[in-house]
Every structure is written in structure tokens, then in C-alpha cells.
Request: fold
Amino acid sequence: MSSVLLRSLARTTTRTTPASRLLRRNICATPVARRAAEPSLEEGAKTAFDYHTVEDLQHLDASEILPTPGSKEDAKMRHFTVNFGPQHPAAHGVLRMILELNGEEILRADPHIGLLHRGTEKLIEYKTYIQALPYFDRLDYVSMMTNELCYSLAVEKLLNIEVPACAQWIRVLFGEITRILNHLMAILTHVMDVGGLTPSSGASKTFDLPHGLLDDIFKWGTQFSSRVDEIEEVVTGNRIWKERTIGIGPVTAKQALDHSFSGVMLRGSGVAWDLRKVAPYDKYDEVEFDIPVGKNGDCYDRYLCRVQEMRESLRIISQALNKITPGAVKVDDHKLVPPPRAMMKESMESLIHHFKIFSEGYSVPPGETYSAIEAPKGAMGVYLVSDGSNRPYRCSIRAPGFAHLAGSYFMMRHVSHFFTCLVTLGVSPTCINRDLPWCLLVLCHAGRSECWSYGKKWAATLVVSSFTFISPVSSSMVAPATEQIATQFGMTSEVLSAMTVSIFVLGCAVGPLVGGGVRGDVWRAEERERAIAIYSLAPLLGPVVGPVCGGWIAERSTWRWMFWATSVADAVVQISGFFFLQETYAPLLLMRSLR
Reply:
């Protein structure tokens, strides 16, 4: 029977009979699913497709038309495939998923990535470094400033420059405002898609940048905390909300790490990983905040993490407002930053710099770098390669939404989720699919020492260098006092020389045992130059400093003071190791974070 006849039959049906529901079910499915759902017409068997009029169908019972439950024909009609999207009001972006359903139960979900792929990475290669910046706004329209920040940090690394402190505080300030904006959209659209249409906050306002902007931000921050309380009062304890989010889309810590999840999707599973803490950028190492984590890894825990992160962002904004001081916000280099317009009227060089910056841009030294930040949706990274020209040779973007959407298939596998739960799962990662790239998935494992801050890395390096330095110092300091020791204890020259050589060799061998491994764990290969230079001085200077110190002590006192001085120096180094030297072995740190 043709599909046209089936559609006309469905339109003319006046009563909703089991047979008519069967027809509509097969009409709405895709052609492949419809063919799979059609039962085989064996000899003597009649189905709804054997009847041509509505009257024939209305005078029959469902038992005469539908196959017997559990039969072969019934099994063929259970599983069918439908499209979710690509343009769906609950997707918040162009998202397509192919769903295999058993009635209302989801058996399989295959995400199709790239429907809004616009070749951003390739477009950037044909633009100057300044012209490429606006492309990052369009990756995620609710994470504009953090996207630009990630790219700007990568360019600054290649240029080997550091922006003024005032500019870094402004970045922190607006980065946290962007985070609050992103979490607000995630929570409110999540509530709306799940079924809550009650408004929970008023409209926001957009300001320019007047002189009183910091005062306005302070007033907004003090008032917004009460708005967060209102959101929690309406949503957190709501029975329907909890029924539709608790136990939906659970992700264990191991699954989150295996699929390169980050942000709330990772912290909701109990892994306290935040790049603002483990690898601070700008001024995040000077502010105090906590990392909220979940326990069950479901949609409800991820919602709670977002709410708490908004409160932590308000803490950071308050600290930034107190610590920010007026000052320069641009680098004092007119080859990179256009000079003021007043200088252009007085200096020919300023006019030339202005013209060159806006006509051809600035050239970046050859090199490559990877810059990562904690964006509102997770870890965002930019891998930038320069060939020395004014255009990037390669720019690869690690967007957080790519890993989250790619891992959505296992969130519904082996778990009885119904079709209505799909919206809850789809919104929980809050994917705006413009930011989905095709390559470069980079994510440091939780607790990896390579991702420590530079201060923490140098503290560990200096401690192990002290261990390596004090060992040859202690073993060689005894050399000037060997005659005093031999006279007091009646030792022969052969025994004395053997003892001196043994102590010296033992001291030189024990020191480097710990330092090399720690240095390799903490520093990446491209960052080890200074660390190796400082560390290599320890075994070279130790045998030189030790005899000098030992001779000075032996002339002014007895050999016993030499051992007392060595013991005090060793104790100082050991105590500093307890405070500043932490575990650096990455697999062990990962296991600890999982526990």
C-alpha cells in the first residue's frame, strides 16, 4: 500500500483506534524505520495494511489487527529510528541525534557533529592575528570574553609579553561575569525545557564602560546573590525538577576522565579539576575560591555545581574589585598596540606604527604554543603555530562542548532513559555547536604536576636542587678535618682515605636520585631549560663549597662543629621538603583524585 493512501487514511479517521495509532506510528517514522516496522505478510495473516477503508478498521478489535505480544511480528515493530533535530527548540544550537527507540525508551543515541561547522580554524589562517580575534566571539555567544581570552593568551605567549596587572584584573572580572551569564542561561533554559515555565529572574541590562562601571558592578554583585537564592528556592527543592534530573545521565569519574570531560561535566562526577586552580592564568592565583564538586554525576549534581559556581564567581568578582588599581591596560609597545591619536599628530613613527598595525598587523616570532583556560562550559584550549609572519600558520581550537556531545552516547547506554529524558541530557552539557572543532582534544589529567602553576613548579625544583646540593656539600666538608679525626681515633691513612672517598661518592650518588624524576614530572620538555640549568649547578657547586666551608670550620673550631653544621643544614632542607615538595607522579595523583 502506498504512503499516500496511508496518509489519506490517517487524515480521514475520526476515531483513535489501536489500528489508526499503528498507522500513524509507521507514517511518522523514517522510511528505514517504517520498513523495519512493517510485519511480514505470511500466508493467512492479516494486518492493518490489508484493509483499505476506515470502516473496515473501525469494526475490528485491536487483537484482530495487532500481532500477538512476543511474536516475531511484534518484535519487528518494537525498535524504530527517529531523528532528534537538527533544528529542535530544546537543542539550543544545531544538533542532530539519531535515536533508536523501543516505544518511549531510548536504546541508542548517535550524535551527529558538525552541522554548524563553518571552517573557523581555516578562516583564521587567512587573517592577521588582530583580524582573527572576532571569530572566537562566534564560537559560543554566551562565552564571548573567555573565548577571546584563550586566544589572546596564546598570542601573548608567542610574543613573550605580559599585559599590565590592571588589564589582568579586568580580564578576571569580566571572565567571571561571563561565567555567571553562561550558567544563568544553562540553568534557566534547562528548567524551561524540562517543563518549568515560571520566570525566576528579571531582564538584565547592558552598560557601556563609563567611569563608574566598577561601582555598578559592585552594586550588581551585592544584589545578584539574592537572585541566586530565588533560583534555588524555586528550582532546587522542586519535586518535579528533582524527579526529572536525579539519576538522569549519570557519569562516573572514570568515564568523565576517559571521555575528556571538563568543567561542570567533570566536577559533577566528583573530580575537583579547575584550570583556574591547577594552572592559574591572569590573576587567579591571587584570589580565593572553592571548587564545587558533585557525588552522583547526574544532571541534578551538575545543576547544583552550576549554582554554587555562580556564588564562587561572585566571591572572585568581589576580590577583584578590591584588588584592582588604576593603571595601564595595554602593553607599552607601539609595534603591537596602536599609539594614542594625540601622538600620531606629533610623531611620524607613531603614525607609521598605527598604519602598519591596521593595514598588515604585527608579526609574531616563529614558534608554537598551547593556551588553556577554564571556560564556563569546561576547559577550552587554543593551539597556535606561528611561522614568523603576520598570520597564524595553524590555529586549532579545543572546544569543551565537543567532548561532552561526543560522550552523550554512553550516558544513555544500559540505562532506561525515556524520550522525555533526552532534553534533560541534551541541555546538561549546554552545547552551542558553533564551537565544535574536528581535531585537537587536549586535557590534562586530574592532578597532573605538569599543569601546576609556575610558582609551585619552581618550589619543587628548588627543593630537589637543595637536596642535590646539600649531599655533596655534606660529603666533601669532612675532607679538611681528616687529620683531626685520624689523630683522635687513631686511624691509619688507608682507612681514612677509603672512608673519605666512600662518603663523597655516596653523597654525590644519593642527591640526584630524587631530583631527576621530579624535574621530569613537573616540567614539560619545552620548559625544562632553566630548571635543568639550575638543577645542574647543585652537583657542580657542592664539591666546591663543601671543602671551603669545612676548612673554615676546622680552623676555628673542632671537627665536631662540622658535623653539627651539616646536620642543621640537612634539617633545614628536609623541613622545607615537607612543606614545598609534593607528590609529582601523575598516575598516583590521578588515582588519588578519583578516590
